[in-house]
């Protein structure tokens, strides 16, 4: 059997992490961040009490992923 979704997009994880930052849901953010790291490698993005710092990290990671894909 083939799966309906054979590939997983890193952007789905990044979007979830972004939502959890905005909602101040640290535990959920860290869970998704760990799964992102397991799926795609690279650094696990740690929670920061400053949401702007986390958002900037997510943006840098998304830029790096885009650059790698081109």
Tell me roughly what share of residues is in helical segments: 55-70%
Q: What general outline do the C-alpha atoms trace?
A: globular
For the sheet with most strands, the description reads: none
**Average pLDDT level:** 82
- Give Rg in angstroms: 13 Å
Helix-strand pattern: HHH
Total strand count, please? Answer: 0
Poorly predicted sequence stretches spanning 5 or more consecutive residues: none
How far the N terminus sits from the C terminus, by CA atoms, comes to 31 Å
The fraction of residues in strands falls at: under 5%
Total count of helical runs of at least 4 residues: 3
Explained architecture:
It contains three helices and no strands. The protein has 70 residues and is an all-alpha fold. The model has no long low-confidence stretch (mean pLDDT 82).
């Amino acid at each position: 059997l083939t799966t309906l979704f054979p590939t997983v997009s890193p952007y789905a994880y990044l979007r979830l992490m972004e939502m959890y930052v905005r909602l101040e849901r640290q535990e959920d953010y860290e869970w998704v961040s760990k799964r992102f790291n397991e799926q795609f490698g690279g650094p696990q993005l740690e929670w920061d009490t400053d949401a702007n710092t986390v958002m900037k990290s997510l943006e840098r990671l998304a830029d790096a992923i885009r650059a790698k894909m081109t």
